[in-house]
Amino acid sequence: MFSALLVEQGDTGQSVALTSVDEARLPEGTVTLEVAYSTLNYKDALAITGTSPVLRKYPMVPGIDLAGTVTASTHPEWSPGDHAVLNGWGVGESHWGGLAQRARVDGDWLVPLPVAFTARQAMAIGTAGYTAALCVEALLAHGVRPDQGEVLVTGATGGVGSVAIALLAARGFTVAAATGKTAEAEYLHGLGAAGVVDRAELAARGKALQKERWAGVVDAAGSHTLANACAQTRYGGAVAACGLAQGMDFPGTVAPFILRGVTLIGIDSVMAARQRRTAAWARLAEDLKPGALESITREVGLAESIAAAQELMAGTVRGRIVVDVNR
Prior knowledge:
By secondary structure, this protein is α/β, with parallel strands linked by helices. It has helices at residues 42-49, 119-142, 159-170, 185-191, 200-203, 223-232, 255-259, 274-287, 290-295, 305-314, and strands at 2-10, 13-21, 31-40, 65-73, 83-87, 102-105, 110-112, 150-153, 175-179, 195-198, 214-219, 233-241, 263-266, 297-301, 320-324. The strands form 3 sheets. Strands 3, 4, 5, 6, 7, 14 and 15 form a 7-stranded mixed β-sheet that branches. It is globular. 50% of the residues are buried.
């Protein structure tokens, strides 16, 4: 038996509770793990609170991230005692996820835990930080350089934004952090942001083309924020879009793309190939300092994750929430 956060669907709707589960109920997979830590992402909060229908089947253990130790494997690349990390692949949506003490998954979904990080630190990064690394990798691959001007990060106090700021600052970029939480300026400066932009400047409908400000952008907001970020990006610049915190719509025009040669890069972390995953984790291991991780991390126990998910949906969470599944 093991403890798990279990979401079930009944006649009166969805319910979620900390439950004792028989290991025989674990789904099919080639690798079984003893989970050490998981984390709460926006998608996890949607699943736990039932705010959006992200779950594909019931009952479901949410948690799109996990870090743990292999206890059994029929996969050729994994052996008992190996330390592994999982991000995405539909885990926590259509396949039981990381908010539990045990997990059974496809071994192809796993990557080795980088030696630079503990399991807890890897989950302080989680999908949010791994997505931030994918965004930074995309900007660098496009040729965005520190000497070309400022880089904008939207949703700056969130998990993606916080890690993106730290990574970009470590590479020598001048980072402008956009947030609606202006009282968090000290926190953002501590991560490496050179300046803070009020989210309101970007959140409303703007002109098709605006003053050129950004050499590159990491956007976790979507909607008007993304449209305005594109309209303010300098000639030849790039925008990495990875989220929809403001909305799924994109109320922009083609003007930035056909008149300034701006490139809009879509970032998907769920189904990314292993090569891209390992490159992102290598970037994190090289550029993300342990002190920066600690400053953006709060730890909760498995039972506390339900309340923490509600906080995340209310927009009152700063940085990352790590879940110790064994307390």
